[in-house]
Amino acid sequence: MEVVEDSMNRKFLQEKKRGGWRAITFILGNETLEKLGSIGVSANFMLYLRNVFHMEPVEASNVYYLWMGLTNFAPLLGALISDAYIGRFKTIAYASFFALLGLMTMTLTASLPHLHPPPCNNPHPDECDDPNKLQLGILFLGLAFLSIGSGGIRPCSIPFGVDQFDQRTEQGLKGMASFFNWYYLTLTMVLIFSHTVVVYLQTVSWVIGFSIPTGLMACAVVMFFVGTRFYVYVKPEGSVFSGIARVIVAARKKRNLEIPAVDDGTVEYYDPPVKPGVLSKLPLTSQFKFLDKGAVIAEGDLTSEGVPAHKWRLCSVQEVEEVKCLIRVVPIWSAGIISIVAMSTQATFIVFQAMKMDRHMGPHFEIPAASVVVISYITIGIWLPIYDRLLVPSLWRIRKFRFTLLQRMGIGIIFAILSMFTAGFVEGVRRTRDTTVTQTSVFWLAVPLILMGFCESFNFIGQIEFFNSQFPEHMRSIANSLFPLSFAAANYLSSLLVTTVHKFSGTKDQPDWLNKDLDKGKLDYYYYTIAGLGVVNLVYFWYCARNYQYKAGPQSEDIKEEKPFLDI
User: Fold this and answer.
1) CB count, 10 Å around CB of 118?
2) Phi and psi of 406, rounded to 5°?
3) Nearest Cα to Cα of residue 199 among 372, 326, 446
4) By the 8 A CB rule, do 453 and 560 touch?
5) What's residue 416's pLDDT?
């Protein structure tokens, strides 16, 4: 007995040494270096397609949007694999190797002459040689590897970090909040570094510009495995999607049951204790009552041991409420797509816009076109500490007021609309001045980019916190895959919008809005179209937010009143 007790004590002490900030150091290090690698390639990718692969702006934009759509759809599959089969650690580990393989492939497309079209000094790249099938195939293969890597890393990195803290303790909640702050701080630093230093190196040499992200990704893989003995590992709980399917099937099988609109005790629901590792016990709510039928105990549903006789006929209240969490979030999720469509112009047409403007800073230095979007990221880096440390405490102290997550998201949508209106105005001024006087300064783009920075600060961070707070802890991988899924939908919508505008906005005598020569096109009309869609989307979001019912239990904004350090 003493030997067994001593063994258990040693195991307990070993578990206590795992997790915490020692583990977070390796997770954040891996995440930061991985982001430096992946964003280092995507930051200037439009110009790589334009100048090296000689694609027209619309063609390059469609390639970019379709790739980013795949990249942001993949996390949904990564979350499924992680939660149902192999866990977060293994998912990140396998995905990291795919990301490294993708970066190596992209570096080869830049360094080996037969993997890209021959160089062309023609000022109009679309008049140069097109890439052949082999060159496009290797390029798309590298992009596919990068998408697989992102699909495993993105939905698991934040939940894996959260796993390192015991959320049942005050210290664990405080550590989790600090982890969110450090996560977004490092992300902002990566964005700024990638869009300045890495982009500048790519203007000097694409081989050097791609080799550095590849080397950083290799370091990220090494660093992630160095910390293996410090991590807390949470076992996969099974497929969330199979649980969702069981609830829907069970509710349909019992669709003829009559249940009261308000629970009066006349109906018995199957409500066992939650599984080990599930911290949030969800009570039965009155919304979406048709799903409650899946948890009603009918004759023959339970065995003599009190467990369901048929899993596809009887579900627990917890499983039903988890499905309700997902259904409630979907309308709010869909309302965030148009704002991301607006944001995605930073990596596409705003870059082409900047190429037509005066980018000189002093007599000897010219700002790379892809680096102008750093203004948006600097705005985020400056605004977040002001919001967190000054605005939120002051509003609560003076007016006893705080922004809810949905209010923050709505404010972000308004900033996205304003950003597109100002971007259209700036393009109209640029096109007029360039044909009559001199080139317009690229710093005119600072206004729409600053407004887009405010959009991201309010809407995007609000979305991530919203998704994490509206799902139980064991569904966090699914929650974190919803935001990339918004980007996937936005990128596919952007591709459809670009193709439609390019095809139908022009006539025989009039070039289309997205003409390869911006001076002949009407890019400002494209921006105004997105702004108009944003206004319609704002009304839709207001309706969805007005009718949204928060998940039962304490919300993050409730905790913020007493513990302001939890605000992102």
Assistant:
1) 9
2) -70, -35
3) 372
4) no
5) 95
Q: CB-based contacts of 502: which residues, under 8 Å, 6+ apart?
A: 58, 512, 513, 514
Strand partners, 360: 366
Collapsed DSSP state (helix, strand, coil) of residue 492: helix
Distance CA 177, CA 158 (A): 11
Q: How far apart are CA 178 and CA 157, in angstroms?
A: 15
Predicted confidence at residue 138, as pLDDT, reads 94
Residue reference for tokens 């459809």: 496
**Would you say 443 and 305 are in contact if contact means Cβ atoms under 8 Å apart?**
no
Could you give the CA distance from residue 464 to residue 326 in angstroms, rounded to a whole number? 14
- pTM (2 decimals)? 0.77
Q: Cβ(78)–Cβ(156) under 8 Å?
A: yes
Cβ atoms of 473 and 318 within 8 Å: the answer is no
Both tokens of 549, joined, read: 């019912």
- Tell me how far apart the alpha carbons of residues 213 and 236 are, in angstroms, rounded to a whole number: 32
φ, ψ for residue 5 (rounded to 5)? -65, -40
Give the whole-angstrom CA distance, residue 510 versus residue 528: 19
Instruction: Express as a percent the part of the chain with pLDDT over 90.
Output: 21
Q: Provide the terminal-to-terminal Cα distance of the chain, rounded to the nearest Å.
A: 49
pLDDT tens, 294-304? 888 888 888 88
Specify whether the CB–CB gap between 158 and 152 falls below 8 A. Answer: no
Higher pLDDT, 238 or 232: 232
- Which two tokens mark 466? 């919203």
Q: Nearest CA to 488 among 116, 70, 168, 117?
A: 70
CB 512 within 8 A of CB 506: yes
User: Percent of the chain at pLDDT above 70?
Assistant: 89
Quote the CA–CA distance of 550 and 188 in Å, as a whole number.
29
**pLDDT per position as a tens digit, 202-212:** 888 899 989 98
The Cα 143–Cα 98 span in angstroms is 10
SS3 (DSSP) at 283? coil
Residue 91's nearest CA partner among 24, 160, 179 is 160
User: Cα–Cα distances in Å, from 180 out to 168, 185, 406, 461?
Assistant: 17, 9, 19, 10
Query: What's the token pair of residue 323?
Result: 């499905």
Compute the residue count for the chain.
568
